[in-house]
């Protein structure tokens, strides 16, 4: 069955022309690098981290980064390829397209694709959202929109941190653009992503225990506070501009 376009879907749920203009149909940008998300011979691939495992020390330790990338993210890629091994059309699509059209995935493999494509997409964004010497505040267009939406950066930071702290079990906290073109802070369980609900994620904070437990154990609040010192605002700004068109 051919999937309907996002424009058609937004019209069906009552989003008007002005909102459509503010929320163009563009491919989300996961970071500054050109990532080859698919390879016809092998399916989805795991790109290397854009920095060394210890680059985010002392905020995120090297062993956590190694296990998180080489084991957890790698498992999502492996399991996604396995789930889609008999679906060459889906296997050749960018992962952002897969998670945006899950209702069209064959039902017998939909849950596996949902979980593992979400994990792959989320982590592609997560790695590129951090850097050595990160932190501080955004500048330019994104900074102005954050101030407009959340009053100021500190209010935004507190709200996203609180949302991440309240995620029950495993999941993510996001700064995302909703279908009306407005910034919002949302959380998703497990490896769900705002892309699954016609959103455009701009910044995601991973609060699965494997993202922080070796260093912080159950002290999620300390991990969240430390994570802000790693944020790559240059990448986030580019992602925001690409999502807005």
Task: Please write out the topology.
Elements: H1 6-12, H2 17-22, E1 38-39, E2 43-44, H3 62-83, H4 88-91, H5 95-100, H6 107-128, H7 140-150, H8 153-165, E3 171-177, E4 183-189, E5 200-206, H9 213-216, H10 220-227, H11 233-244
Antiparallel strand pairs: 1-2, 3-4, 3-5
Number of helices: 11
Q: What's the name of the CATH homologous superfamily of the domain at 140-244?
A: Iron/manganese superoxide dismutase, C-terminal domain
Radius of gyration: 18 Å
Give the SSE string. HHEEHHHHHHEEEHHH
Low-confidence stretches: 1-36
CATH class of the domain at 140-244: Alpha Beta
The CATH architecture classification of the domain at 140-244 is 3-Layer(bab) Sandwich
Annotation, overall tally of beta strands = 5
How far apart are the termini?
A: 29 Å
Strand content: 5-15%
């Amino acid at each position: 069955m051919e999937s309907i376009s996002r424009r058609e879907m937004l019209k069906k749920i009552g989003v008007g022309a002005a909102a459509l203009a503010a929320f163009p149909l563009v491919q989300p940008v996961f970071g500054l690098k050109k990532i080859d998300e698919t390879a016809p011979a092998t399916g989805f691939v795991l790109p290397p981290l854009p920095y060394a495992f210890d680059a985010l020390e002392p905020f995120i330790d090297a062993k956590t980064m190694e296990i998180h990338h080489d084991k957890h993210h790698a498992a999502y890629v492996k399991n996604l390829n396995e789930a889609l091994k008999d679906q060459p059309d889906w296997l050749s699509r960018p992962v952002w397209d897969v998670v945006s059209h899950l209702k069209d995935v064959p039902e017998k493999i939909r849950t596996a694709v949902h979980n593992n494509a979400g994990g792959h997409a989320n982590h592609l964004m997560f790695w590129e959202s951090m850097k050595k010497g990160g932190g501080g505040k955004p500048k330019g267009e994104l900074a102005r929109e954050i101030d407009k939406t959340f009053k100021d950066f500190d209010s935004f930071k507190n709200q996203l941190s609180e949302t991440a702290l309240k995620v029950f079990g495993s999941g993510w906290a996001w700064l995302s653009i909703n279908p009306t073109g407005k910034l919002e802070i949302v959380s998703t369980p497990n490896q769900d992503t705002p892309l699954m609900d016609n959103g455009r994620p701009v910044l995601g904070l991973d609060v699965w225990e494997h993202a922080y437990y070796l260093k912080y154990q159950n002290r999620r609040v300390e991990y969240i506070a430390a994570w802000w010192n790693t944020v790559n605002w240059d990448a986030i700004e580019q992602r925001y501009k690409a999502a807005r068109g």
